[in-house]
Amino acid sequence: MKTINWMEEVKKRETEILAETQRFLQIKSVLTDSKKKEEPFGEGIAQALQFLLEKGRKDQFVTKNVDGYAGHIEIGQGQELVGILCHVDVVPEGEGWSVDPYSGEIKDGKIFARGAIDDKGPTMAAYYAMKIVSDLQLPLTKRVRMIIGTDEESDWRCVDHYFKKEEMPTIGFAPDADFPIIYAEKGITDVELRQKPIEATEGPLILQTLTSGRRYNMVPDYAEATLSINEQSNMKESFEQFLTVNELIGTIEINQSSCTLTVRGTSAHGSVPDKGKNAGLFLLQFLHTLPLDEQANQFVGYMNQYFVNNSLGTDMGLNRRDDVTGDLTINVGIISYTKEEAGHVGLNIRYPVSAHIDDLIETIQTKSEAYEMTVKHFTDSKPHHVDQNHELIQTLQRVYTEQTGDEPTLISIGGGTYARALEAGVAFGPLFPGREEVAHEKDEYMVIDDLLRATAIYAQAIYELAK
User: First and final CA of the chain: distance in angstroms?
Assistant: First the structure.
């Protein structure tokens, strides 16, 4: 059989790939409430799932919609199944975009949109990789199935539902992280904490409300607090100085009896909290300088003690690390407070493969009790690690080197991908070494040359894994 020039095959389809990727990115597939059984995560996500399944049907692939929770597109034949695990849902767009976040605008060699790099752009790369293998009528001894998730950015209810009903692939990869190969992923736990309200609470300043954040796995880029003022204060001057010192944008509005404060930070992925500027934590840091009422002072004191400038969890005794996956990190993704219901916090914790969830939760609970804070709920996704000598990794390393000429090093991440749903699964691209990480940030984009290169890599990988 003659050698296949995978990049040449991609270039033949470049116009179609870009046009279809734009169409896909223009669907606002953000989680919303839904009353329709067939749209469990909202209309936009259902539309994005149908978009891919319809493409598969038109290309005469085997397709299936699994109750609106997930779907799959399949080529090839044989007993064994190779999985490509993708997702069509995206996080909310956030603030401060310079382009329409759902336009798929192309400029400066990049395609911009929420989901461009996480994970709609890579999903289209993987789809066209399958299509190239199919178009070339290459002989396969295994089936290749793109499994399409719809709730990856929230609770993974999609894959939980899918694998209750459908076959588990023997091996596979998720095009949802970095090249060369992600062979280890930290454990991920979302922890909900609540404060016990105090009946009588007084002070020169009464904190009425505080809100920050939309998702556990995003660094909040906006925070707002309202206070009742019982005596005159020089708060305006001190707040403006605080903003200047911390290089923040914010506002303060004061009238005779109330005050509203806002802070704008910088969003980032929850797995890299220090890459962003957590607007909520900055606002809490300022509130800690004020003579607040008893209940608010307790909540604000707790947050400053354990979470402000504390993304490694050191002060709470959560600092854990190992050589495989590095340090534990904490993102304070949600902060909510009302005078009536007291404080509510949502933490997104990424912990190394050697740490244990029960130990972490017990530590959080013990440290929180003195501030009348209680762990109300937590979810957990265990760490994931594939042996570096596994056939899957060996094959992908060879493909990556042949396509790029670069060293196929193995790396670990704090992010969580669908690869951890498989016993032998890794994350494989699409972000090339040296590229800016913009997932979950404003002006998210994917370099077009990288989209095409990833398609060629995925096409060869699919063939090598399934031939």
Answer: 13
**Per-residue pLDDT tens over the stretch 416-439:** 788 988 989 999 999 999 999 899
In the set 9, 74, 89, 151, the catalytic residue is 89
**What's the length of the chain?**
467
DSSP label at 409?
-
Active site (annotated) includes residue 89: yes
Please report the beta strands in 367-413, taking only residues with DSSP state E, as ranges in sequence order.
373-381, 384-385, 410-413
Instruction: Give the dihedral sign, CA 48/49/50/52.
Output: positive
Per-residue pLDDT tens over the stretch 404-413: 999 999 998 8
Q: Is residue 35 classed exposed, middle or buried when 0-12, 13-18 and 19+ CB atoms within 10 A define those classes?
A: exposed
User: Which domains does the chain possess?
Assistant: 6-186+384-466 (3.40.630.10), 189-379 (3.30.70.360)
Q: Six-digit token pair at 256?
A: 């005779």
Backbone angles phi, psi at 287, to 5 degrees: -60, -25
The active-site residue, picked from 39, 118, 152, 185, is: 152
Question: In this predicted model, what pLDDT tens digit does every residue of 275-307 receive, in sequence order?
Answer: 999 999 999 999 999 999 999 999 999 999 999
Which residue is it, tokens 């939309």? 214
Q: How many CB atoms lie within 10 A of CB 121?
A: 28
Rounded distance between C-alpha atoms, residue 146 and residue 407, angstroms: 27
User: Can you tell me the mean pLDDT for 346-367?
Assistant: 96
253 is catalytic: no
Q: What is the mean pLDDT of residues 231-236?
A: 76
Q: Report d(CA 120, CA 99) in Å as an integer.
A: 18
> What does the alpha-carbon distance between residue 327 and residue 273 come to, in Å, rounded to a whole number?
12
With 0.90 as the threshold, say if the pTM is over it.
Answer: no
Compute the half-sphere exposure of residue 339: CA atoms within 13 Å on the CB side of its CA: 15
